[in-house]
Write a structure and sequence with these properties.
Radius of gyration: 18 Å
Order of helices and strands: HHHHHHEHEHEHEEH
Low-confidence stretches: 240-244
Protein name: Response regulator
Number of helices: 10
InterPro entries: Bact_response_regulator, CheY-like_superfamily, PhyR_sigma2, RNA_pol_sigma70_r4_t2, RNA_pol_sigma_r3/r4-like, Sig_transdc_resp-reg_receiver
Shape: globular
Number of domains: 2
Strand content: 5-15%
Largest sheet: 5 strands, parallel
Structural class: alpha/beta
Strand order of the largest sheet: 2-1-3-4-5
GO molecular function, one term: DNA binding
Keywords: Phosphoprotein
GO biological process, one term: DNA-templated transcription initiation
Number of strands: 5
CATH superfamily of the largest domain: PhyR, sigma-like (SL) domain
Amino acid sequence: MPLSRRQDLLRALPYARRYARALSGSQSRGDLLVAESLRELIAVDDPALRPRLRLYQWISRHYTSSAPPHGGDLTVLDRQLLLLTALEELSLADAARVLGLDEATARATLERAYAGLKSCAQTNVLIIEDEPIIAMDIEELVHKCGHRIAGVAATEKEAVEIATRTRPGLILADINLGAGGDGMTAVSQILQQQNIPVIFVTAYPERLLTGERIEPAFVITKPFEPLTLAIATYQAVSGGLPLT
């Protein structure tokens, strides 16, 4: 593989980890998917596809061949298309190429997947965010996704207290809480008592996708659209694990 493609591949790795973790529901399974896919890609490259798309392609293939059964209204293909177009922000044409679909089939599948998202079960969401304006925006997005607010916490202490009292079905957490501490620390304390899926929100996702330590399974980038939150929430609640 030429040096330039290897460099492009290295730059794509954090985003490949995000996709694989969200698809599989855990850091360990997602990172294993990336490692397996990387070995395959280096051995059998396709210069017709950009390295980032090629990596998504191998991850999708490996996951499809070993995917556990999922509940809910969405198939594995539905989930892959939703994640590629919303979380990874690929065009429909690129997502179709990654999954080996013609564009018309991809569009029809995506429309069906959107309809399936609307029927997903509601849950109570704990928001951990120290900026009041951002917290209000996230509350509005959560409501638009059809979910309820369990509470809004600006500090580690508040987050643990609200989680203990309300037992939410999902946690949506910022990483940096300013003077209030660290979102990941708050989540770690909560997960010692409760098994709750978690989505972390950050403006710098690549910093949480190194594969070098315990990291989130679900990461979305600020600012985000309601659809991105809806898809991440569906994956976290219906098929994912909080942290591994």
